[in-house]
Amino acid sequence: MELLCFVVFLLLGSFSISATDETYNSFVQCLSTNSIPNSEIPKIVYNTSSPSFTPILQAYVRNQRFNTSTTPKPNIIITPLQESHVQASVICSKKLGLSLKIRSGGHDYEGISYVSSNGPFTILDMSNLRAINVSIRDESAWVQTGALVGELYYRIWEKSKVHGYPAGICTLVGVGGHLSGGGYGNLLRKYGLSVDNIIDAQVVDVQGRLLDRKAMGEDLFWAIRGGGGASFGVVLSYTIKLVPVPPVVTVFRVEKTLADNATDIVYRWQSIANKIDPNLFVRLLLQPITEKTKGKKQGKTIRASFIAEYLGSADTLLAVMNYTFPQLGVTKQDCKEMSWIESVLYWDNFDNKTSPDVLLNRMPQSVKFMKRKSDYLQTPIPVEGLESLWKKMIELGKVGLVFNPYGGRMDEINATATPFPHRAGNIFKIQYSVNWDDEGAEAANKYIGQTRALYDFLTPFVSKNPREAFLNYRDLDIGITTNGIKSYEQGKVYGIKYFKGNFERLVKVKTAVDPENFFRNEQSIPIQPKSLRRRL
Ligand SMILES: Cc1cc2nc3c(=O)[nH]c(=O)nc-3n(C[C@H](O)[C@H](O)[C@H](O)COP(=O)(O)OP(=O)(O)OC[C@H]3O[C@@H](n4cnc5c(N)ncnc54)[C@H](O)[C@@H]3O)c2cc1C
Ligand SMILES: *[C@@H]1O[C@H](CO)[C@@H](O)[C@H](O)[C@H]1NC(C)=O
Ligand SMILES: *[C@@H]1O[C@H](CO)[C@@H](O)[C@H](O)[C@H]1NC(C)=O
Ligand SMILES: *[C@@H]1O[C@H](CO)[C@@H](O)[C@H](O)[C@H]1NC(C)=O
Ligand SMILES: *[C@@H]1O[C@H](CO)[C@@H](O)[C@H](O)[C@H]1NC(C)=O
Ligand SMILES: *[C@@H]1O[C@H](CO)[C@@H](O)[C@H](O)[C@H]1NC(C)=O
Ligand SMILES: *[C@@H]1O[C@H](CO)[C@@H](O)[C@H](O)[C@H]1NC(C)=O
Ligand SMILES: *[C@@H]1O[C@H](CO)[C@@H](O)[C@H](O)[C@H]1NC(C)=O
């Protein structure tokens, strides 16, 4: 018996080594016939025997769930140093039938930029392509997709203290996934999403052509501003429009528990959060915690943390709060005035003496196990609903919710202007959020199970037909495509949730630019079934 296993193991082993060898050699040869000098190839192509393979793979893993010995690993990692390397990589991957995963900052919540559930795959890692050029005269910037949003904020701040860009609160997210998937942060109510402030882009298409906005045409340019880049090509860069920020902004963080009437205040928050002055963004974090009275642990309660960014001074913020949301009881002591870049650091939980230079550090302090889900609300949750929600959250124990207010600029932008469809009428988006540190399937099942249970619980209160979801909060629970003959039907399940009425236009663009579905992943835009294609 033992001997038999050994023989089988040997056979499998030698088979897989020779298969990888062959793939690797053919790939390298193909790059070389596509004008990549042989001297450059070892600097950009790594197979599993390379000592750099594991460090490169792990460098942009941002969820410990996908950093285990059983996580499927790529056969090859490509780390292009220039645009032509990307072009040749696409041509050669297509030619050899490699399944290509594109990774920029690696923050995908389900890890689909560096893990595959559908057999062998190769990673195209964009982290070396991260140049940023800022022009204050044009109020624009050109940013390669391997850059992180924190680096972009830093380069803008270096040139101007009164310009910014509406993008993520977590400064380590990558431009490639973040901008192609929507991208939002605390400037959302004033200036909309990242994708509402993009004026040009460069893409490498399935034929390896390098296309700018003019060359790719308005349909593809539309698709890569919220439809997710990975279905359409490799986005190399975006040209963005900078937005004005005042020299002084104000932040606060005010916490209330159930004993402080959090229920009434949260209820009130729902009726002002999307209607208040668009210069003000008040995020709400809800968490089950153990109550402490005089240092003694008591029962469980819910903590509601209200975190604000206001584009103006503390005095005007206090006047706005006093007028629209006095229930929160914000005082002058709660308000901190600072520059916009300091508020970027504040929101990303750096302490108040941290220099903006920290934004050039690409590596996180620690990487946790995570699960996220999302929902949208167009009607407020009634008081009794909130009370039952608190009970449920306390019962589950760990999963928290983040309410991100909409309204303002988000109400003004047509839902068809970009693939991102969640515009007028949304009060807020919910993020279901749980992080944990314990390894193993038991903990993962427990905490992921909590997010699913809370998602089920909130069904009566959230959007319906479809139950909407945010692409950048990737959630494979809402459907996956296995890329078989049913891929359109499968893709429609999550596609309608992420894109609503824009899904069909994305399918048309996809079918036109990548008819053989080379650029695919677990939740990519499917191609149109032949039966639905219009005959020419
Ligand atoms: C800690 C944390 C905080 C976050 N905070 C926010 C936030 O404040 N606001 C917000 O909107 N989102 C936030 N997100 C979600 C984040 O915006 C998305 O996960 C986003 O896709 C990350 O981009 P990335 O380049 O880092 O990810 P990656 O994992 O590299 O890529 C994500 C997806 O985009 C594709 N892709 C990446 N680069 C390219 C490219 N160059 N061309 C084509 N396709 C590409 C990938 O193949 C994959 O499908 C957060 C995520 C995390 C983990
Ligand atoms: C891995 O790459 C090296 C060159 O860096 C090459 O010599 C070797 O054959 C490759 N091995 C496999 C298994 O592909
Ligand atoms: C992934 O796991 C390895 C140990 O297997 C660890 O050294 C590394 O730091 C982890 N990566 C991240 C991003 O945390
Ligand atoms: C950005 O700046 C670099 C270095 O100055 C330059 O080589 C490049 O052409 C610039 N790119 C754009 C699009 O302006
Ligand atoms: C909570 O609300 C009740 C009734 O409105 C009020 O009497 C009480 O003072 C409030 N408690 C706090 C801590 O604000
Ligand atoms: C708040 O508004 C009330 C009137 O509604 C006013 O009397 C009070 O002075 C205001 N307080 C502040 C701090 O603006
Ligand atoms: C900075 O943080 C310290 C410690 O938390 C605090 O004592 C101090 O008041 C803060 N300063 C400002 C300006 O917020
Ligand atoms: C949104 O844009 C579409 C397409 O251009 C148009 O038909 C529709 O009337 C617009 N809707 C609104 C509310 O302006």
From TrEMBL:
Database matches in InterPro entries: BBE (IPR012951), FAD-bd_PCMH (IPR016166), FAD-bd_PCMH-like_sf (IPR036318), FAD-bd_PCMH_sub1 (IPR016167), FAD-bd_PCMH_sub2 (IPR016169), Oxid_FAD_bind_N (IPR006094)
PROSITE patterns assigned: FAD_PCMH (PS51387)
Keyword Flavoprotein: yes
Domain of life assignment: Eukaryota
Extent of the signal sequence: 1-19
Metabolic or biological pathway: Alkaloid biosynthesis
Gene3D superfamilies the record matches: 3.30.465.10, 3.40.462.20, Uridine Diphospho-n-acetylenolpyruvylglucosamine Reductase, domain 2 (3.30.43.10)
Necessary cofactors: FAD
Keyword Metal-binding included in the entry's annotation: no
Entry's family note: Belongs to the oxygen-dependent FAD-linked oxidoreductase family.
UniProt name for this protein: FAD-binding PCMH-type domain-containing protein
